What does this fold into?
Amino acid sequence: MSQDVKPRIRVPQSAKKGEIVEIRTLVSHAMESGQRGDAAGKLIPRQIINRFTCRYNGKLVFDAKLEPGIAANPTLNFFLKCTESGKLEFTWTDDDGSIYATTQNITVI
It folds into this structure.
């Protein structure tokens, strides 16, 4: 399990029905590609966030498969059409099976 993994999200508190809003996410993670060596020349094992998902009231609205070429502390931004008030659930899955998650409510007026 990676140390100090901290997911952060930016979601508007409210939106008008049918409005398209930008969702911004960032997760603090070293994202070790498995291609670098340590001081002794030994390869550092791959340790990346390999999947990110977002669910809106339980329905999958965004799903990304991440590869070793992605930068440390990956940022993912996407757009969401707001249809009803509810909960957004964000999950990041690590190579070792660890899941980092957070939620945010949005009010549709």
Remarks:
- The chain has one domain: 6-108.
- Strands lie at 6-10, 14-15, 20-28, 49-56, 59-65, 75-81, 86-94, 99-108.
- Residues 6-108 form a domain with the Immunoglobulin-like fold (CATH 2.60.40.10).
